[in-house]
Amino acid sequence: MRPPLPLRPLRRLFSSAVSRPSPPPPDESHLLRRNLLSLLTRAPLNEELCTATLSRLTPLDLDRHLLELRPSIHQRHALRLFSYASDRLRFPFTPLSFSILLHSLLLARLRSPAHLLLTRLLDPLRSPPLLLSHSHNRLPELLHSLADSSPDDSSISAALDVLLHVCCTRFPPDHGLPLAVSSVRILVDRGLCPSLRSCNFLISSLAKSRKHRDARCVFDEMRRFLSPDVFSYTPLIDALCKGGRVEEAVVLFAEMENSGISPTVVTYNALLDGLCKHGMVAEALRLKERMIVEPSVVTYNVLINGLVKLDRFVEANCLLDEMKQKGIRPNEFVYNTLIDGHCRFGRFEEALRLLDEMVRKGMKPNQVTHNLLVKGLCNAGQMEQAEQLLEEMLMRKTVVNEGVFNSVVSLMLKAGSRFESAVRLIKEMLLRDLKPEGSVLTSLIVGLCKNSKHQEAMEIWLTMLEKGYHVEVVASNALIHGLCELGKLEEAVGLLEAMLEKGLAVDRVPYNTLISGFCKEGKMEEGFRLRGCMVKRGLEPDIYTYNTLIHGLCNLGKMDEAIGLWNELKCKGLVPDIFTFSSIIDCYCKAKEFDKAKTFFKELDTWNLEPNVVIYNSLVSGYCEIGNLKETSRLMDEMVERGIAPDIFTYNTLIFGFCKDGKMEEAFKICDLMSQRDLALDEVSYTSLVDGLTRSGCEKEAKFISEGIIQYGIGPQNAKTS
Predict the structure, then answer these.
(1) 613-722 maps to which CATH number?
(2) CA distances in angstroms from 549 to 197, 323, 446, listed in the order given
(3) pLDDT, tens digit, for every residue of 219-270?
(4) Rounded (10°) CA dihedral 304, 307, 311, 312
(5) Residue pLDDT, tens place only, 149-185
(6) In 3-state terms, what secondary structure has residue 216?
(7) Ramachandran region of residue 362, left (φ > 0), alpha (ψ -120 to 50) or beta?
(8) Is 45 exposed, middle or buried (0-12, 13-18, 19+ CB in 10 A)?
(9) Which ranges in 661-698 belong to alpha helices (H)?
(10) With 0-12 CB in 10 A as exposed, 13-18 as middle and 19+ as buried, what is 666?
């Protein structure tokens, strides 16, 4: 062994109920030693004597006495003394004192107390008072003390083995494994190394936690002192493969073989799996051919899986036949691999044939088998077969996972014709404590609300919350939107309040939806109240909020309040959009305040906005109402010049205006324009023409048009043709 590394002078970092005593005189020192021996060898613990003795000792004095008294220590009595002094007196033992106790416990084969002691010492949150040179030196000082206080080589080896085992098993991997790796590095630097068995256990633990770099580090440190065996190489090869370092694993495998170490079937399987998963199937097949041990069912499953993913089913089936010839019975994993592969490539007949073969051979297809088939059928759009298979699974009480339910329900909702079945399956999921996907739940809620089944949608939503499932904001918003669409505004408000009470995430969308609903019904006070609630929750109104409120005020003719909001949104730095302008321009046109409408129309350029057909229709309709057909025609020409196609409303407005003014020739010219642009006259168009002709005294023509269009199922509204 190398000599111990020098440690910094110790200083007290933990408070102690025991004040620092002055050095005792020689006679008193002898008395303290005798009292300490009594405390370490007799039961029960004399707490009064313990308090008095430790009050006269420093932690370093205690170290010296413990080293001298070590041969006489009774381990269980010593454990009680340390426990009382640490927990009740808060006496700050040194790492050396605890190391002496630990060696004594291991010497007496008291492994369980030794494990518990090390667990406490390594955990800063649960550690007893400990005198350290520096708080971050806990692990190095403890390791050096274990080495310094070891009576012989076997004792230090046993202590280090226990320490590694505690690190790997008593702590979460993210805390314990780094401790173990650091311990190995510190020990190796001192010229010490845990046993091969413990190093292998650590490498295996690191491999299972996908810490391939640390596993490699421990392996390299270990072999400075020890010769690795197959149990050292196997987990490391597995870890390297899973970490994507397959080429390094291949080199390590060759090194193992060259060292005269024979790989086990587990070693082969680890490397074969890595090769296949990284697309190196040809190399995997060559390795299989030179195996010096018999392949296992896992070997074949790994290779078949690799071939299936490449759509090489002929070779996969050859391996399946080879298995049977060797007397190796394919298990569920092999069949599931093949079934999954056939499903992914759309060969469902073959997948179902394999399912039947499993049953014939006495194998019970498990939930994975069925789940693979159902998901495969769903991915291929085979809804009826997927639903039928799922129903069979439910009848047989086969465990069905969330993914399968979600896949089938999603397919049903997309089809549109299986809505009731989708609802039933969602309820079945909830009964089985399975959570529907967010997108599936949202689609279902939207569908229920469209079918006026808002109560059923509410029940599903509430069941989700009762089961503690997180309901995505989109699903909750969809339900509020659905209720608003049905005019169930009070229920929608209640739902929003329930969301807030349950602490669910709420964004602007439900508030904007509700504000829109109340504005459509002319209940502006409620709309503004909701805006206030929104602001109180720290959600600033956006342009959609303002557009909704402005539109509602405009519909009620409250232009002063609407313009007030217009000014407010600009002050808040929001940018008005085409919908903002559309509402205001339309309202001014209806109020026949065309100068103000034109002012806003011109301001569109200021905001880099292009007018749309809706805005032009408002202007066209407004000017038509006052009989200014010249301006109406000019606006339509301007629309065409800007590349904005007039719609049926634009043309009907012009037809109505010309007919009302008795200008039937111009009205029919508009009809010709519509025909040129592939727009068919509708009921409104014909009604205007019939009324115009009738008022112009052309009753015969009016009757002709009226009778001619009835055969197409279109009839003029209240047209006077006689």
Answers:
(1) 1.25.40.10
(2) 75, 74, 25
(3) 999 999 999 999 999 999 999 999 999 999 999 999 999 999 999 999 999 9
(4) -100
(5) 888 888 888 999 999 999 999 989 888 999 999 999 9
(6) helix
(7) left
(8) middle
(9) 664-676, 683-695
(10) middle
Q: What is the pTM of this model?
A: 0.57
Tokens for 259?
């060292």
Q: Which of 339, 328, 343 is nearest to 380 (CA)?
A: 343
As annotated, the residues of the chain forming the CATH 1.25.40.10 domain(s) are 613-722
The amino acid that residue 402 corresponds to is E
Backbone angles phi, psi at 264, to 5 degrees: -90, 175
Please tell me the total number of residues recorded for the chain in this structure. 722
8 Å CB contact between 168 and 202 = yes
Residue spans of alpha helices (H) in 149-245: 153-169, 173-190, 196-208, 212-222, 230-242
Q: For residue 316, give both structure tokens.
A: 């996969």
Q: Which two tokens stand for residue 148?
A: 């310094």
CA pair distance 640, 621, nearest whole angstrom:
17
Interhelix angle 297-309/332-344, nearest 10 degrees: 0
Best CA proximity match to 66, nearest among 22, 90, 120, 102: 102
The dihedrals phi and psi of 129, each to the nearest 5 degrees, come to -55, 130
The tokens for 644 are: 């904005």
Neighbouring CB atoms inside 10 A of 470's CB total 12
Residue 170 near residue 126, CB atoms below 8 Å: no
- Tokens 């608003």 -> residue: 484
**Spatial contact of 509 and 527, defined as CB atoms under 8 Å apart:** no
Does 678 score more than 60 pLDDT? yes
* Cα gap 97→62, rounded to integer Å: 7
Q: What is the chain's alpha carbon radius of gyration, rounded to the nearest angstrom?
A: 42
User: What mean pLDDT value characterizes the chain?
Assistant: 86
By three-state DSSP, how is residue 193 classified? coil
- Residue 614 identity: V
Joined together, the tokens standing for residue 627 give 């009989």
Unique residue bearing structure tokens 């806990």: 138
Q: Among 5-9, 174-178, 372-376, 498-502, whose mean pLDDT is lowest?
A: 5-9
